[in-house]
Protein: Fructose-1,6-bisphosphatase class 1
Organism: Polynucleobacter duraquae
Amino acid sequence: MSASSTFNTNFKQYLISAKVKGAGIPAGLQELLLAVAHTCSTLSHEVAQGALIGLLGSAGTGNVQGEVQQKLDVIANDLLIDGVQGCKSLAGLASEEMELPLPVQGTGDYLLLFDPLDGSSNIDVNVSIGTIFSVLKKQDPAASLQTSDFLLSGRHQVAAGYVVYGPQTTMALTLGDGVVMFTLNKVTGEFILIKHAVEIAHSTEEFAINMSNMRHWAEPVRRYVDECLAGVSGERDKDFNMRWIASMVADVHRVLSRGGIFMYPWDQREPHKPGKLRLMYEANPMSFLVEQAGGASTNGDQLIMDMIPTELHERVSVMLGSKEEIERLQHYHSQV
Ligand code: AHM
Ligand code: MG
């Protein structure tokens, strides 16, 4: 028997049989998630072609946050819009790459938010990148779509996930009842269930942060990392390992796969900005996944999932992963 025959549930079959608090997954949500997965399968194929089909390099444009867009950022955004626009269950979508939300002609009340291609700086160097998505429900289905419809806390998410384009293309998904993972069978184009009940160990010896920003961090983050670096001879009494891929999607995938913590905290380079990463497209969906896997996620003062967004492209400080480490970071923040 080949090892691959152990895995025989595809994404559609999973959605049909999945239960959240005893109830099945609404058909409209299934339709939307299948469309997202199908688009990511296409995107995975494009990403793998890279230079062969002229996809590397800058698009020569900037996004709403003034960041340079890569060709693949733009292509991924367009593919996702095309891929979900026909969903009857969708009322609108919002993307990290677009200033305003896009109403969709569906009759349903789901809202989709996404970072179409996270880890843009890694596209041209053949390092893992990915798509991050979050699904909310419009509170007033009858009213015409407004930006304010999207400004709900992470607790309102009905689904969230990512697809990481690495050596394998793997999707992590939560529907609010644990986390599951699927790997894309590149021959059939189907995502196949590979892991149930993903769990993040409460303690860890691995952290991820862009160390080049050390001199800019706030005191509690500096203290935390200093103590990790001190290893067995310091406060923590154990040695730590560090990893930084610079694609949140790949760093969080590692945290979900083998524990650890990921931090992109506030820093004083841009003191008026709370952080680099975006609440709606990155922090919220990743925090939903991490909490559902038994981990925690904070901005230092508050759980990310409890934050009430004030604008669509809001940035946030984010620290997530193994619970004991996040509690320690929160404690350090409470002492200043
Ligand atoms: P992006 O969405 O434009 O790719 O930016 C977000 C990325 C994250 O994936 C990653 O954690 C971070 O930016 C890396 O930042 P840095 O270049 O400072 O290491
Ligand atoms: Mg991103």
The first strand starts at residue 19 and ends at 20. The helical segments are 11-17, 27-49, 71-84, 219-230, 248-258, 279-292, 323-334.
